[in-house]
Every structure is written in C-alpha cells, then in structure tokens.
Amino acid sequence: MAGGSYNVGHDAPRQYDGRVTGGVTSMEPFLKKFFPSVIHKMNNDSGEQNEYCKFDSQLLTLFTSSLYLAALVACFFASVVTRTFGRKFSMFFGGIVFLIGAILNAIAGNIVMLILGRLLLGVGVGFANQSVPVYLSEMAPAKIRGALNIGFQMAITIGILTANLVNYWTNSIKGGYGWRISLGLAAVPALLMTVGSVFLPETPNSLLERGHTEKAKQMLRKIRGIDHVDEEFQDLFDASEAAKQVEHPWRNITNPRYRPQLVISFLIPFFQQFTGINVIMFYAPVLFKTLGFGSDASLMSAVITGVVNVLATLVSVFCVDKFGRRILFLEGGVQMFICQIGTGIVLGLKFGVGGEGSLSKGWADFVLFLICAYVAGFAWSWGPLGWLVPSEISPLEVRSAGQAINVSVNMLFTFMIGQAFLSMLCHLKFGLFFFFAGFVFIMSIFIFFFLPETKGVAIEEMHVIWEEHWFWKKYMKMEDTHNSGHGSSGASTSAKSV
C-alpha cells in the first residue's frame, strides 16, 4: 500500500500546473501583462476576426509547452539517477526542482522569469514521470498492479480538477493578480511530493539493483505483509543478477528480444498524445471561450470536464484488473472516435470554414456533452493505461531505458501538440477534431493486433506473453537462436511465476 498512498500526491504537481496553465492563459490580466497581442486579437472589432484564431500566438503556447520540452531532456538524466540512486531520490529531487519553478512562476515580473519557471517545472516533471510508474509497478503485487498504478492517473485527474476549481475562483479576484495565486499554488502539491518521498520505502528491485540484498528481502517482507517471500524474492534476485550483466541497457533494448518493449514504449505514449486529449485538457477554457462561452462559463465548463475525468478514472481503477487492459483500450478508443467526429461535425456546421458563426446554448451544451464523453473515454482507457502498460512490460535489465523512452516520447509529443495546437485550430479549424479522430482509429487497430493482455501477469514473468503472441514471438525465437551457446537472456532468467 505504500505505492498507493504515494501516488495520489506524486504526479499531482505536474497535472495541477498543466491544467492551471490552460486556465491562466484565458485570464485577461495575465494576457495583458505577458501577451498583449492576444488581447488585441480578442478585442478586434473590425469584422475580420476568425473565431478559430483568437488565441493563436506561438509565444503563448511556448509558455505552456516549454515545460514538456524541459521534461523531455530531463527524463534521460532521470533514467540514470533513478537507476543509480534509487526511485526515492529521483522523486525527491523532482519535487524540489518543481517547487522552485512554481515559486518563480508566481513572482514572475517578465516573460523570461515566466519561461524559466516553466523549464524548472519541466525538470521536476521529467524526474517524477521517470520514477513514479516504475516505483508503483515494482511495489505492487501482480493481482492489483493495475488498480494501484492507476492511482498515478487518479493523481492526474485530481490535479486537473483542483486546477480548474482554482482558476474559477482566482478569475473572480479583483486586482488582476489571481493568476499569480493559480500558478503559485502548484507549490502545495510539490511540497507533498517532496515530503512524501522522504517517508517512502525504497523498492526491493531498486535495493537489489544497488547491491543491498538483505535490505531488499526485508523490504519485500514488509510490503507483502508476510514472512514467506522466498519464491518471489528468488525471482527478483535472478532478474537483478541478469540485469547486472547488461552493461548497456540502451543498446540492449534494441536487441530483438526486447523489440515489443521498445515498440510499445514508443507507440503507446505517441498515440496517447495523438488522441488529442491535451487539446481539450490544456486549453479547455480557451477552447470553450473560442466556441462562444463567456470567461466564467468557459472556466466552469473546464471544471465540469474535470469532474467527469475523476469519476471516469475511478471506473478504470475498479475494472483494469477485472476485465483487463485490452478491453478498456478498445472501448475507450471507440468512444473517443465517435465524440471527436461528432464535435468536428457540429463545429463545421455552426462555424464553417470561415469561423464566423456562433453556437446557441443548446448546441454549446451538446458540444460540452461530447467533450465530457470524450474525456470519460480517455480517463478510463488511454489516460491511465498509457502509463501503466509501458511501466509493467519491461524486464529489470531494460526497465529504466524503457521508461525513459516512454516518458521522453510522451513529453516530446505533448510539447509538439501543445506548441502547435492553437495554430492548428486556426488553420485546420473544425478539421482538427477529424485529424485526431484518425489517429484514435489507427491506435485502436494497433492495440487490437499487437498488444497482448498483461492483466495478472507477474512483472518478472512478463516475457511469457511475448513468447506466445502471434507476432512478437518471432523476435523471441530470433534472440534465442542468436544466444544459443552463449547463455540465456536476462528476460528469461526468472524462475517460476510469483
């Protein structure tokens, strides 16, 4: 349970900040101080205004997306730190840097301070996202690993909802400083992350990885609550010894045996970002304002989607270890596809290509319903599973490399989409939703054919699912042939099922 109590506090900083940022960028006092050109576009009464292009500013999107560029770079350093110094230290360091970034954002007097604060926040995100999912997967028993790891996504949804509520409150504060409160309050979850990591136990896998064999066995007894852990510990020990023989984990993950881990660690975070979720969640207040909602109404609409996000994530917590990963992935994909197509059609009919139309209250409510249904589909499928599956599929010898790929790909495409979204909305208009719907269709096909079920499989026995899969098993055979006479691979070292 250590992993579960940890998680609710340890990804909240990133998600609180990311979603606060989306609300802050729709607040006029903030825009007047840092992005006056956007205010000029919003107040343009010349009759030439295109509703899709009101917020199109590369500097404005850089404020949001710079965090993820920094996280992309940081996660590679975090991979080494997490492996060398342990999961706890990586989380602690990430929390400290995030805290400093939150303070800088709150007191920012110019755009340079603002972006610098965002870059420090990104470093904290890189370290947290590298260490948290690995920590949870290593601490959890196989039968509840999915539910426990989805606590990671629960922290995300709680961060989103909290951010939306804070924005709704601070937007009404007189004096034009509400945005400082919104950004500064990111220090609260950062403090929870930092302090929480001090009191967490280290994972048995990490202790073994760093040569503390007896401490690892004692820790395994403690977290399992029983004295007889010899069989599970032997599996962990065997995997750790095999991992120590691997001198180059980054080179090793390119070997045929690890081809499924490499491909899935890349494609799942890639597809997760191309669901278009960050179009909705980062810029929900801006998007709703663009669609004709007033300032307060747009922030309240974002609160509504935040509530839906939390409730839908609870569905995943209760279903992921009962029904499995694949069915949630596929159902969520179908639901998101339908909602994106519906949203694109409505906006196309009401705004047209020129973006000069408007939404009546009835149509605006229908768009809000479609977006909420889309958010629900993501929240019980690609949201939590996009972090769970990559973190549980890699054997210890390539786990840090696999997770670094997962985080870096996630951050890279979060940055790219965050930076490009407002321009894409301006140029693609309602077609943007069709664009993302196309990717949802492709990624659902990928899951159907290429992702085996990982429900209930012990993390050190995960290699079995690849050896039995219709497509991936050929890579296992290639490696076995290559290694014949040279000793067995580390992935097949585990003895018996835990």
UniProtKB/TrEMBL annotation:
Q: PANTHER family, alphabetically?
A: SOLUTE CARRIER FAMILY 2, FACILITATED GLUCOSE TRANSPORTER (PTHR23500), SUGAR TRANSPORT PROTEIN 11 (PTHR23500:SF460)
Q: Which residues cross the membrane?
A: 59-82, 89-108, 114-136, 148-169, 181-200, 262-286, 298-320, 327-351, 363-383, 404-424, 430-451
Q: Which organism is it from?
A: Acer yangbiense
Q: Which residues form the Major facilitator superfamily (MFS) profile domain?
A: 1-455
User: What UniProt keywords apply to this chain's record, in alphabetical order?
Assistant: Membrane, Sugar transport, Symport, Transmembrane, Transmembrane helix, Transport
Membrane topology per the entry is: Multi-pass membrane protein
DNA repair as a keyword of this entry, yes or no, is no
- The protein's predominant localisation is membrane
Q: Which GO MF term does the entry hold, naming one?
A: symporter activity
UniProt keyword Transmembrane present: yes
Q: Which InterPro entries match?
A: MFS_dom, MFS_STP/MST-like_plant, MFS_sugar_transport-like, MFS_trans_sf, STP/PLT_plant, Sugar/inositol_transpt, Sugar_transporter_CS
Protein name in the entry: Major facilitator superfamily (MFS) profile domain-containing protein
Which locations, inside or outside the cell, does it occupy? Membrane
Q: Which Pfam families match?
A: Sugar_tr
A GO CC term assigned to this protein in UniProt: membrane
SUPFAM superfamilies of this UniProt entry?
MFS general substrate transporter (SSF103473)
What protein family does this chain belong to?
Answer: Belongs to the major facilitator superfamily. Sugar transporter (TC 2.A.1.1) family.
